[in-house]
Amino acid sequence: MTVTAGDVLEILVAILFPPAAVLMVAGCGADFCINIGLTILGYIPGHIHAFYILYKKHEAREAYHRRSTLLTSPSMPVPSEPMPPPYNSRDPAHVDNITTSDF
To answer: Would you list the DSSP string of 28-54?
Structure first.
């Protein structure tokens, strides 16, 4: 879990003015409008929503990096045989492989 300078800046902006942080992260959309409404109703709900949006962005970025690391990992095994057909395959080429134990 790495924290960048941009993350620190977003947190500081969220502390000072939550709608600005949501605007930076999510753009001018539903989340921004919800945050403005929550900030008008109470400063604390606006903060909670802004930090939730920041957390979800950070979580999505971490998941993306984990996925891209797994896909480019040189240690991943390469299958030496073709994948077997799906269980309910009706392909005639695989009919001879079906036994009574499959039912």
So the answer is: SSHHHHHHHHHHHH-HHHHHHHHHHHH
Give the mean pLDDT of 22-43: 92
Q: What is the pLDDT of residues 52-71, one digit of tens each?
A: 999 998 888 888 877 766 65
73 alpha carbon, distance to own chain's centre = 20
> What letter would DSSP give residue 81?
S
Helices 30-41/43-71 angle, 10° precision? 150
Return left, alpha or beta for 67; rule: phi > 0 is left, psi -120 to 50 is alpha, else beta.
alpha
Model pTM score: 0.62
